[in-house]
Specification:
The chain is of the alpha/beta class. The chain has helices at 54-73, 76-92, 94-105, 109-129, 168-180, 193-206, 223-232, 245-256, 280-292, 309-324, 344-359, 391-394, 410-418, 433-442, 477-480, and strands spanning 20-22, 25-27, 34-38, 45-50, 136-138, 146-153, 156-160, 183-187, 213-215, 236-242, 261-265, 270-274, 302-308, 363-366, 381-384, 401-407, 425-429, 447-450, 469-470, 483-490. 39% of the residues lie in helices and 20% in strands. The chain has a 7-stranded mixed beta sheet with strand order 14-15-16-13-12-17-18, sandwiched between helices. Strands 9-8-7-10-11-19 form a 6-stranded mixed beta sheet, sandwiched between helices. Helix 4 (109-129) runs parallel beside helix 5 (168-180). The termini are far apart. Bound molecules: NADP nicotinamide-adenine-dinucleotide phosphate.
């Protein structure tokens, strides 16, 4: 195995893979081409992995098709036991998986450790849940007939995942799909294929049959061809995608030709509202967590921070002080709380948003520029009085930048919060029970964090409304995205 970093000291070196996993075989690209996976903290390559395209994707799809019937027909308890073995291996190798994740993605090790636990939890949850996929009987309106409802795995599925949660987004798709009896061909993001390949290595070790889960790698130039094969190949019955709205819409259009089932987990533009009756300590802690986690590179990060006029000045002062305590540094250093951004393009976008907010009248209270460490590090930033017209109020910034705005009444806060085509997550803090109910009912979002900044857990349905997506991942509802409902009309029964 030709890896670039002898310094990557994994306890189990075989978890660092530089080949894709197709039909149960570790494979190079047909033409032998590779691309570099780099460490965003240093810009150094970690490994080179195959640049694959439609031919390799097609082979993975055909292998998934060949594996489907036998996998589908296994008792759910057997599939659950296998997924549980993969989960146990992930926990056993959690330190290695977390290190790999930090090296390719940049987030602090403690966050990577948490992501591995979260990723592993989907395998356990969905394995168990798949044992409880029940059908139904419906009283027939006519004599001599019976109506039975049955549930079936959709079939061969495609999965495409982003770089910001390179492990959790893989299992949040693969675990429910495999648990219910589907097979899957998954393409991880260009920046973070190593976490997905490590999960495949553990799945192989656990005894997952060949073809049930294949991982096809490629860089950004290869992604359209891989995506095309997944959407155009009639063997594939469903595509699960997590990523940007722009790419989600392209894939949805491509799926339309065959009316292919899609689940889309797309971007957000989360409002974070603090009402005047909120517990400020709680609100400050919740905002710091949800804003700066993963350097602000999450789809559920607070993007528009709306603070009531009466508490605005105190909140801004205390929040700016707290943000100033964050330590920027490589994810591998235990002191670091904010790692590098994923790449130079991400840094450029954050810089552009800060400049644009200032052009629209915002005042800079903290940071505002690339961090002195260089590379793709950006200093934790707080901006005051951000205009609703500024780019950062309208698009995802995906950086450690908090833009605060003021509001003076509940209706205004709700109107501003809903003034976006997105509808993934929203947060608000209030101790007034009437307000909690009123505001919850009016916010147009799939997920509401009420007096909490932490909302990601495998037992709850994660997903958006409006342009943030279709479908739910996690919870008993997450099973529905990977099964289809049939009904049997039984006639000629006689009574
Ligand atoms: P992205 O650019 O849309 O990429 C996502 C995936 O799509 C990558 O694997 C990418 O491959 C692939 N891709 C790109 N163009 C494609 C095409 N034409 N056909 C098929 N696949 C294609 O998004 P990202 O920058 O990686 O991720 C950040 C976005 O994901 C943000 O908008 C964030 O909000 C969203 N997100 C949403 C959720 C959620 O649950 N709603 C969770 C996490 C992230 P390459 O990497 O090879 O280009």
């Amino acid at each position: 195995m030709a890896l670039d970093t002898p310094t990557v000291a994994l306890a189990d070196a075989s978890l660092l893979r530089d080949q894709a996993f197709i039909a149960g075989t570790w494979s190079d690209a047909d033409d032998g081409r590779t691309f570099a996976v780099t460490n965003p903290a240093t810009g150094e390559p970690i490994a080179h992995v195959p640049r694959m395209s439609s031919a390799e994707t097609r082979r993975a799809i055909e292998a998934a098709d060949a594996a489907f019937i036998a996998w589908r027909d296994r008792p759910a308890a057997e599939r659950a036991a296998l997924l549980r073995r993969i989960r146990d291996l992930m926990i056993e190798h959690r330190d290695d998986l977390a290190l790999l994740l930090t090296l390719e993605q940049g987030k602090p090790l403690a966050e990577s450790q948490a992501e591995i636990a979260y990723a592993a939890a989907f395998l356990e949850w969905f394995g168990e849940e798949a044992k409880r996929i029940y059908g139904d009987t419906i009283p027939s309106p006519q004599p001599g007939r019976r109506i039975l409802v049955t549930k079936h795995p959709i079939g061969v599925c495609g999965g495409i995942t982003p770089w910001n949660f390179p492990s959790a987004m893989v299992t949040r798709k693969a675990a429910p799909a495999l648990a219910v009896g589907c097979t899957m061909v998954l393409k991880p993001a260009e920046q973070t294929p190593l976490s997905a390949l490590a999960i495949a290595a553990l799945a192989e070790r656990a005894g997952l049959p060949p073809g049930v889960l294949s991982i096809v790698t490629g860089d950004a130039d290869d992604a359209p061809a891989i995506g095309r094969e997944l959407t155009d190949n009639p063997i594939v019955r469903k595509l699960g995608f997590t990523g940007s709205n722009e790419v989600g819409k392209i894939l949805m259009r491509q799926c339309a030709d065959q009316v292919k089932n899609v689940s889309l987990e797309l971007g957000g533009n989360a409002p974070f509202i603090v009402f005047e009756d909120a517990d400020l300590d709680e609100a400050l802690a919740g905002l710091a967590l949800c804003k700066f986690r993963n350097s602000g590179q999450t789809c559920i990060t607070a993007n528009r921070i709306l603070i009531h006029d009466k508490i605005y000045d105190e909140f801004v002062e205390r929040f700016t002080h707290a943000a100033g305590q964050l330590i920027v540094g490589p994810g591998t250093s235990p002191e670091s709380s904010v790692g590098p951004l994923i790449d130079a393009q991400a840094l450029e976008k954050v810089q552009r948003h800060v400049a644009d907010a200032r052009d629209h009248g915002a005042h800079l209270l903290l940071g505002g520029e690339a961090h002195e460490r260089g590379g793709t590090y950006f200093a934790p930033t707080v901006l005051n009085e951000v205009s609703p017209e500024a780019a950062m109020s309208r698009e995802e910034t995906f950086g450690p930048v908090a833009g605060l705005q003021r509001f003076s009444d509940e209706d205004e806060a709700i109107r501003s919060a809903n003034d976006t085509p997105y509808g993934l997550a929203a947060y608000f803090y209030s101790r007034d029970i009437g307000r909690v109910v009123r505001v919850s009912e009016q916010l147009e979002y799939g997920i509401l964090g009420i007096n909490t900044g932490f909302i990601s857990v495998e037992v709850a349905p994660f997903g958006g409304v409006k342009e943030s997506g279709i479908g739910r991942e996690g919870s008993k509802y997450g099973v529905d995205d990977w099964i289809e409902t049939r009904y049997l009309a039984l006639g000629g029964i006689g009574r």
